[in-house]
Structures are given as C-alpha cells and as structure tokens.
Amino acid sequence: MAHNVIIIGSGPAGYTAAIYLGRAGLDPVMVTGALTPGGQLVNTTEVENFPGFPDGIMGPELMDNMRAQAKRFGTEFIADDVTAIESAGSDDAPLYRLALSDGETLETRAVIITTGSNFRKLGVPGEVELSGHGVSYCATCDGFFFRDKPIVVVGGGDSAFEEALFLTRFGSSVTLIHRRDEFRASQIMVDRAKENPKLTLLTNTVVTEIHGTETAPAAPAAPALNLGGLALKPKPQVNVSSVSLKNTVTGETSELETAAVFVAIGHTPATDFAASVASRDEDGYIIVDGASTRTSTPGIFAAGDCVDCVYRQAISAAGMGCRAALDAQEYLSE
C-alpha cells in the first residue's frame, strides 16, 4: 500500500508538517529517526523565544507537545532511519520507495524531508558532558543565560563572528578562539569584531579540553529523598568553568576561565540519503524552488535546517514545515 505522504525526520518542521497534513485528512506517516526523534531541541534546556510560552518551556517538553498534537490528527510514527529514496512509479503516476535501516521499505506518493542538520563538534573532553550546561551551539538560543559572565566562542567564519558580536550584548567579555592566524570570515565582520571593546580575538589557538565545576545552589539544597530507608541526595549541577588552550605555533598551553563555550565551526545537513532525488548545494543543503519547499524532483519537498543554512531557528523551521505541508497538499490534489 502506498501512503499519501511520508515525512522524514521530526523536530519543529516535521511535526508542523504532520499537523497540517493530518488536519487535511492525508494520514501522514513520520519516520522520526531511530535514536533522537525531536531534533536538536530535545538536547536544549529552556526555550524562551518560541511564541506562546511567556515563561519559557523546556526543549524536550516543546517537542513532546508537538508530537502529541501531530498524533492527535492521525500521524503514524515509525522510529527508524531512511537510508535511501528511489523512484518506484511512472511519469504519469510518480511513486517513491524509501529504504529503512531495519531492511523494511515504504512506498509513498509524496515525501517531505525535515532531517535538519548536525552541529559540527570540537571533539574534546568535556564537550559532550557539559552540553546544555555551558557548552552551546546557538548564541541566539542561549546567550541570554550568560549575562555579565565571560564567554568563549570557537570558530573563524562569518557565523562565529556573528555569534561573538551578538554575545557581546550579554557577556562581560567574549573571546573568539581560532586555530589559524587568518579568518574565513568576511573582512567587514573581522573589522567589526576588532572595533568592539568587549571582544578579544585569540588566533593560532585550539581548545583542548572543557572543564566544569559544581555550581553553588542559589537556594537551600532540596532534602534528600528517602526510598525504602535509602537516602538519595540530588545530583550536584556541574557547569562550564574554564577551557584548556594550546597555541598551534609554539605548543604553549594555558587555561582560560569562562562560563560558556559557544561552538561555531559549521553545520552538516543530514541529506546524504536524498542525494539521488534532491539537488543539493556544495555544502549538502537541499535546494528548493524560491520561497516554496519544492525540490528538483516533483513530489519531493524539504523544510527546516536541511534547507536553511541562515536562520536555523525552531520557529522558522516550523513555518517552513507548514509551507511544505501546503505544497504537498497541492501536489497531491493535482
């Protein structure tokens, strides 16, 4: 049996598309991913800039709410990964076959790709352990939490400079660390950084480790839990406190105190599986037709961070997911 439309990937774009398609009676199927359904927001703590939540909302809770709303309108969820897409129909009756990582296949009349992109990571000790506790990959999302505290940004491109300049609004100081003595960023961005008194450029330097320390509680510690006579104390909170540095020319090592490390060394869109059905740019982002979500293949649509290399926000991804659903609905009605 061929489905009407299959959404590949979850997150704000995928869930929004599912909500719209479900309400249109198209019985969408979502292949959420085998390990991390919900996209990058499931690894985010408090989200304060998504409309409708004046007191903020935790990232995982926001994704759970979106999933529940999509389920309410009939979305079927499959916890697996799509490994390839191929044409299985004719010019008069296009059909697509999706291969899943468990060996199963699905057929559908239309596909919406919302697999997002992955932050490139430093790969140093402490990065994974302190993610969400001072290690961040989004200044717009998390900069506010480090008001009047020292901040480190790692990277040398336009994105890194944009993040560093943005973070000077919040941090007591911002240090941008780059492994070379020349930057990939445009000269105007470099000039703006040099003119900002709160921003320091540290070149020929790499971060070799990120350190954390226990944070003193702002209020009296919660009482120990007593379960069957066994007293359990709450696990102490550990946040970023410093980074270890190494000069790439001299080999000299040092340590820099900081409350946050923002990693801005690029993104990798998760689109390799779709290379045979969707044209991509040199960085792997899926190319769409103008302001639509139509790809180079009729019946294949794309939305969210697998398309958007500029904004990369939950709200913009959700908006694009809406457009993808409407584009797919129009295609299926032809």
Automatic annotation (TrEMBL):
Keywords: Disulfide bond, FAD, Flavoprotein, Oxidoreductase, Redox-active center. It comes from Bifidobacterium felsineum. It comes from the Bacteria. This is Thioredoxin reductase. SUPFAM superfamilies: FAD/NAD(P)-binding domain. It catalyses: [thioredoxin]-dithiol + NADP(+) = [thioredoxin]-disulfide + NADPH + H(+). One of its GO terms (molecular function) is thioredoxin-disulfide reductase (NADPH) activity. Residues 4-321 form the FAD/NAD(P)-binding domain.
